[in-house]
Design brief:
Blueprint (H helix, E strand, L loop, with lengths): L1 H16 L3 H18 L2 H18 L2 H18 L2 H17 L3 H18 L2 H17 L3 H18 L2 H17 L3 H18 L2 H17 L3 H18 L2 H17 L3 H18 L2 H17 L3 H18 L2 H17 L3 H17 L3 H17 L3 H18 L2 H17 L11
Helix pairs in contact: 1-2, 1-3, 2-3, 3-4, 3-5, 4-5, 5-6, 5-7, 6-7, 7-8, 7-9, 8-9, 9-10, 9-11, 10-11, 11-12, 11-13, 12-13, 13-14, 13-15, 14-15, 15-16, 15-17, 16-17, 17-18, 17-19, 18-19, 19-20, 19-21, 20-21
């Protein structure tokens, strides 16, 4: 009967929260069969929403989307407004992960309106967290930060510890990309304590991956590597393919920056295969960018240029503004190295404008330094000095000493070739 269906569904949710997805899926399928046979569309819709969330978390996006569409049809037929809002939020997240940001934003807005109408504060907090992450990736930083704050207040108000931990894991990434590394590290400490308390291993691993970027950017490579290896082990253990791909890509970047090119290339290629398998377009674009940088560092210019252009096309298609800015800067570096200074200057101007808009202090600093040197090479040393100094100040401010060291070396070589006083020295 329906009582046993609900028991199976609740057991499935418990196993899912414990990251035992295979057991959860089996229980949901049993519950679904019984609910469908009984003709209770409301219960069938609730179970299909659980199935959609399960597939989505595991990175099986086509299966997640199919289950979510079926769930929405059931909710509407049964007149279940609350669950309609929940499923619209899940579908919005699926659209976001598969590179459809406009459709995702529309669904998040509809879901939020339903949650307000039905007084479901808990679900409103969850959908606002996802909307905040979407706004960040599309470059609307102020609105994103405001919504993270609103969502966090709701999670605390309703006592949703798991959602609070998940939001803090997302916030680590937000703070890292906007150059607030100290706050990102403090947020990790709070978030990881909650996630371990509630037993959310998947999000614990995501938080470890996010804080690894802070450690890497501040020169703590062994700590970063330990975090990424731990994150990767958890994702593999619980079968989270999508985030396994993300952790592998992060580890590959760390290997590349540390000069370990062979393991870096192997990890990039493995990550790329996983991201294509699960339909993670954002991850695919990011990994292609990392692989292109590796090709450039190992003298494969044509492959690097082609791969950077492929990454840029993906980021433009899915509306990921910050990644577009980073890709343009990387492409400009290739053109500058080949002596195509006019193309490099145009790309860097576009890159810098986007990175200022999305408040990525670290890449803003790198693009500003590069544009300064291109201006010097094109015969405008005063403009070049101003831009380079501004960029190096940003890198110093956010603590990226590795990138600053690279920019100093590049600047001194370029100034020497142009017979100009180095930009970090007083003018004669």
């Amino acid at each position: 009967g329906l009582e046993s269906v609900e028991s199976l569904r609740r057991a499935g949710v418990a196993w899912q929260e414990d990251s035992k997805d295979a057991v959860a899926e089996s229980l949901f399928e049993r519950a679904l069969g019984t609910a469908a046979a009984s003709g209770d569309r409301r219960v069938e819709g609730v179970i299909l929403s659980n199935v959609a969330a399960l597939h989505g978390e595991a990175g099986r996006m086509p299966a997640a989307e199919r289950a979510c569409e079926r769930a929405l049809a059931c909710h509407r037929e049964a007149g279940d407004r609350r669950m309609e809002g929940v499923s619209q939020g899940i579908l919005g997240q699926i659209y976001r992960e598969t590179g459809r940001p406009r459709e995702a934003e529309r669904l998040f807005g509809q879901a939020q309106a339903i949650h307000r109408e039905t007084g479901d504060r808990r679900s409103e907090g969850v959908v606002l967290t996802n909307l905040a992450s979407l706004l960040q990736s599309t470059g609307r930083i102020e609105e994103s930060e405001r919504l993270f704050g609103v969502a966090l207040a709701i999670h605390r108000e309703v006592g949703n510890r798991k959602a609070e931990g998940m939001l803090l894991a997302n916030l680590i990434y937000f703070l890292t990309t906007t150059g607030r590394w100290e706050r990102a590290e403090q947020t990790f400490g709070k978030g990881i304590a909650i996630l371990r308390q509630v037993g959310d291993r998947r999000t614990e691993a995501i938080a470890l991956g996010n804080v690894a970027a802070v450690y890497s950017n501040t020169g703590r490579v062994p700590e970063a590597e330990r975090c990424l290896q731990r994150a990767l082990a958890i994702h593999r253990e619980i079968g989270s393919r999508r985030f396994e791909g993300t952790a592998l890509s992060q580890l590959a970047s760390l290997y590349r920056n540390d000069g370990r090119m062979e393991p870096a290339e192997a990890a990039f290629r493995e990550a790329l295969a996983i991201q294509r398998e699960v339909g993670n377009r954002l991850g695919e674009g990011t990994t292609l960018g990392g692989l292109a940088n590796l090709f450039a560092a190992t003298g494969r210019e044509e492959e690097a240029l082609r791969t950077h252009e492929e990454a840029l096309a993906i980021h433009r298609r899915i509306g990921n503004r910050r990644s577009v800015g980073i890709s343009l800067g990387a492409l400009a570096t290739m053109h500058r190295a080949a002596g195509r200074l006019e193309e490099a200057e145009q790309l860097l101007q576009e890159s810098l404008a986007i990175l200022i808009e999305t408040r990525d202090v670290r890449f803003q600093g790198a693009s500003s330094c590069a544009l300064g040197l291109v201006r010097l090479q094109r015969g405008r040393p005063a403009e070049g000095r101003e831009l380079w100094r501004r960029g190096s100040a940003l890198l110093r401010e956010c603590g990226d000493l590795r990138q600053l060291e690279f920019e100093l070396e590049d600047m001194r070589k370029t100034c020497l070739a142009a017979v100009v006083t180095p930009f970090d020295e007083p003018m004669p």
